[in-house]
Predict the 3D structure of the following.
Amino acid sequence: MTFEKDINIDATELRLGLPGTSEESERQASTTLRISNKRALPSVADEKQCDQETAPPTKAQVVGWPPIRSYRKNNLQTKKTEVETSGMYVKVSMDGAPYLRKVDLKIYKGYPEVLKALEDMFKFKVGKYSEREGYNGSEFVPTYEDKDGDWMLVGDVPWEMFVNSCKRLRIMKGSEARGLGCVV
Amino acid sequence: MRKKMACSLPDEVLEHVFSFIRSDKDRNAVSVVCKSWYEMERWCRRRLFIGNCYAVSPRMVIRRFPEVRSIELKGKPHFADYNWVPDGWGGYVLPWIVEMVGAYPWLEEIRLKRMVVTDECLEHIAKSFKNFKVLVLFSCEGFSTDGLAAIAASCKNLRELDLRESDVDDLGGHWLSHFPETYTSLVSLNISCLGSDEVSLSALERLVGRCTNLRTLRLNRAVPLDKIAYILRRAPQLVDFGTGTYSADLQTDVFSNLAGAFYSCKELRSLSGFWDVVPAYLPAIYPVCSRLTSLNLSYATIQSPDLIKLLRHCPSLQRLLVLDYIEDSGLEALSSSCKDLQELRVFPSDPFGVERNVSLTELGLVSVCLACPKLQSVLYFCRQMSNAALVTIAQNRPNLTRFRLCIIEPRTADYLTLEPLDVGFGAIVEHCKDLRRLSLSGLLTDRVFEYIGRYAKKLEMLSVAFAGESDLGLHHVLSGCESLRKLEIRDSPFGDKALLANSAKLETMRSLWMSSCSVSFGTCKLLGQKMSRLNVEVIDECGPPDSRPDVCPVNKLYIYRSVAGPRFDMPPFVWTMDEDYALRDS
């Protein structure tokens, strides 16, 4: 067999058998693995003994191929998924509430819709919005943190700009809220 | 009797002479000349490169080299880049940081690749190294913007902060604002990996404005196009610039402002970024194109005609990274416009699609290889290849040092002859005598490994997937490739015989990775028991490997040489095979 000629194990200095055993007995113990010239992956004879799935994967099953760094994969796919399925989830906190919620801004078409959703979620009512005076008539004021880290009043900028720059929402309550609501 | 020269030179002279010897190889050679040189050299070694953080322990390093100023460490195996190493595998830098805090108070530079870096590590660095200057975290993970804030706040002498391709947790807090107003020494900042929320623009603009030595600035995707002009005008001395998102509604004033800002950057040599490109804004960079040596458009979904127009303006280009939208026609144009090209990387725009989506074939690569005499480094994804093309490339570009070809469908034959691509890759290793790195793909038998073993004498790193027929293939590589340091193999029928017959070779290499191959658990145990300076690690997420018969193949195997003995920070799905394995496991 060509294989045996090319790998002359005796010629290598290293013997890996335990002291006292001969090469022969070691070989007998370990050559239940057949070396075949076929391109099948693991040895055919012992497939039955192994619990793992050893058949070569079909096209659909090849995991992690081709070799693309995940960093690159994410950057490539972002364009597609943004349009398709991944939403624009932002955290929403309300002063006094013990835990936060998350809303997907992408599913709303404008301010009235999202404000209504927040009202339902936290069981409160916002006041009436006017450009000059902010929110009047309620002790709750919806605010958001934008990309620059500044806290803004919900409703001041066009809806698209709001969706693209809103990092998180906070429903302010009480005197703090009144201050923000009144100053334009 | 006259004393030998070496002993009669005073220490100060030796030290001065050694200070001119920079490369690790030379330093290592110097240190084995004699005992006194060993002693002298170890006290004045300032830089260390440790290619595998588990090959040696921090204490051993510190004991031998007490005065180190700069350290570079690598952690996870290369295949971790493609998510083939499970999370939690290891590569923690904290033990190193903890030891170095005590031993190297004057440490200036830390460069890490594929390691787990926590905020605690960054806080240690910020607090403990008073003269800290350079932090490079390449493909690292485990830290957040809080850690970055600590670095920004405390490292008064920081020159370089490079987070390339790392995975950073955004905890808000505007870490960039933690650089004090008095801080002006920044030379290089790469935050291109950060997500949308992690940088305050105003803090960035102020930082750029006051750091007049800034040479490299790579922004993240969140920085909009209309902010670039402002930033560039504040840093006209920039040499290397990475844009954020390169897209906006086309407005003449924005465009002319941008073009003017680029024009004022006379030192600019390298551009990158270009996410979400609007082609109409590309001409804004034309003022700098004639001097550009490096261009990374690998995130830019620009089509071939726009690329061709752009490349015509870049005669000095040495390095180009691009998506396969460039197509054969674009590569033709590249080959006639950019005669100084040294490195080309073409990435797939639709790697998981079954259908071909662009007209990019082997012909594009051939045209560049034929026409660019200085081309040394190639990374190319495509869907078809022929032996004839590879032979042409090999014969015309014998100066190639890195050749990485990925034919997207595994085991794809030569599309012209339907034969394996053995002959083609054989020609590559035969003609390119200085080849240091090779990645194989396509249909390959044991023959290609015979060629590699015979010819690839300078090869240091080999990547194999879905190739070969028997242990003979692996045996050819292990017995023939004299310079081999890293070997990584997946889904190939290589097993016990070749490994056992060449086990001594493994101690001359940094590491061997084999996944979905035919190495039995029994062989792993044998290797681990007999080779005390190798760590043999079996990775198996299905459960302990000894719950199955010894003849069963292991799922993933990572073998690396080490003087530190087996590691103890392994997750539950990694088993180390050493003398104690049987005892520990019972």
Notes: Confidence is low (pLDDT under 50) at residues 1-6, 9-49, 51-61, 79-85 of chain A. Chain A touches chain B through 48 residues (CB under 8 Å).
